[in-house]
From TrEMBL:
The keyword Kinase does not apply. InterPro entries: DUF6789. Keywords: Membrane, Transmembrane, Transmembrane helix. The keyword Membrane applies. This is DUF2938 domain-containing protein. It comes from the Bacteria. The chain crosses the membrane at residues 20-43, 63-88, 100-120, 132-152.
Length: 162
């Protein structure tokens, strides 16, 4: 992909720019909800930012700061998930919101099967109780819905009136 395609992608070109912008937008919304959840004292045992820092520090046997956890959170939400969404969104069914919800559910499933066991919480974060799995699903669905709509708007695919 050349610079011109990055800023003016054709329908057949992966729109990385739209994926990154949408991923960042959705990550900001998700972060606000996570901070609100934490401030309200809901599920204090669930702290994905702390878990990201913990998992990233494990190979070296170090303890990383929460700042590293926040950076990791934004890298995952903006770059990793944003680009993956840009790559697969056209193959997902439905409207931008539905495609985003499907993607959010898939991202949640990956978190529950891969990340939560690495963080020491077991499959589907069962060691934290069932509420943690439900809360993270809701957060991922919000993330996905925002991601889908933001991607469509940035990629100029959004046609709310048909």
């Amino acid at each position: 992909m050349n610079v011109r395609q990055f800023f003016h992608p054709t329908p057949m070109t992966l729109d990385v720019r739209a994926g990154l912008i949408a991923g960042f937008t959705a990550t900001v919304v998700l972060s606000i909800l996570m901070i609100a959840q934490s401030s309200a004292g809901l599920l204090p045992q669930l702290n994905p930012i702390e878990d990201i820092a913990h998992v990233a520090g494990q190979p070296a046997g170090t303890i990383l700061s929460l700042l590293f956890g926040w950076i990791g959170h934004f890298v995952l939400g903006t770059i990793v998930w944003g680009i993956i969404y840009a790559a697969i969104q056209a193959s997902l069914p439905g409207t931008p919101v539905v495609r985003g919800l499907i993607f959010g559910a898939l991202a949640w499933l990956a978190m529950m099967i891969i990340f939560m066991p690495l963080a020491g919480h077991g499959l589907f974060a069962l060691s934290l109780g069932g509420q943690a799995a439900v809360a993270t699903l809701v957060l991922h669905l919000v993330y996905g819905a925002v991601l889908g709509v933001a991607y469509a708007r940035v990629a100029h695919e959004w046609h709310p009136l048909g």
